[in-house]
Amino acid sequence: MGSLTLTLACVPPKNPNCTTTNTINRTNCIKNLTNCSSYSIPVHFRRLNRINIRLLACNCTSASALSSSLISEPNWIRGDDKAEENEKVFIVVNFYRFVFIRDPEDEVSKHLEFLQGRDIHGRIYMNEQGINAQYSGPSEDALAYVSWLKEDEKFHDILVQISPPIHRHAFPRLKLRYKPSLVQMEGGVSHLPLIDSSMRATPLAPAEWRKRLEAANNIDVSSHLNPSRNIVLLDVRNGYEWDIGHFIGAQRPNVDCFRSTTFGLSGSEDIASDPLANVDKEKTDILMYCTGGIRCDVYSTILRQRGYKKLYTLKGGISHYLQCEGPVEWIGNLFVFDSRLSLPPTSVKHDASTDESLAHGVSDNTVFGKCYVCGSQVSELRHRNCANLDCNLLFLCCSGCMDDLRGCCSSDCTSAARLRPVLPGHERYQKWHYYRDT
To answer: DSSP letters along 226-238, please?
Structure first.
């Protein structure tokens, strides 16, 4: 008999998932975990036809929020009769923390030892300034690592984000090692006071971020050609990430590699493309966002050193916002650095009213996803790599250009020596030897 221990947190006591009469399936159970940032209770999950579910209150929900009968008595529900005994449900987990680690090499060894024999793929980097992790795995292994990590005082309250279930790994292998810089920036980041929270921007909860964006966008609409300069919305990502989705009012980053970002650091020749050019460093509210939050923490520290005072970041990044608030003030999809590449907002937080308009599509009144080759609007907000291995450009492409150029980004690439086939659907390219040898 399978066992699944859940933490139902941050939900109203009368939430239907708290009743014994409501059918709870495995997908819903996994999604319930994302309502709470504490993840204090580990989840043990096996795909069996009958599952014993026990509902527990987490650190941020009082035990009284759940009835005593629910806490003391398990719910018995019937699983999917078609589910196979050994079928796995994978999840993607993301977290980071800037904290002093006295001996990061020893810390790496401890983590490697714990993960020995567990099915975890992804990137987990550590150094003296902290940890940065993105990985995938079967839910039991993936969450066991989170539970073990939180036993360490340094990481006990770390914000852990869990993406919706998938059917296979989102990363090809595990890379767990010491890395001099947790985030890649020109000149490195080891010299920055990242551990000092006072040097980083003030984090805003998703609800507060939404209020500020709504207020700022209302001001800009009413002022027409004279938008407010008291608030600047800064997208601290790569340009190609903005191309498939961004917050309304955010300017496209002028770089295709975060390490080269120069917002607020530009010379006179870059003023036109720098949203921080000529702003009042003392009075201007600068709202920064990125996918998960770590790039904002790094860049806000740089801006703090340059004299910018009123710096704010979106706590947990875009992924946390979409999970909590849905696609309000957001258009398009979310770019992610794994095999999924593009996530519609509805895959992060399901909202039936926006299913048709947002699932892989473009906002009705906004045209921003354009084909790299011909400039036409694309029908799907998802990048692909150029079929020329020695180019490998990540680009958006319409179906016509994809067919005409056989998956390449330009006519020059079609005659390259190491040319890969056009991949169907959402497949990703494998190593070159796979195509060379076949």
So the answer is: S--SSEEEEE-S-
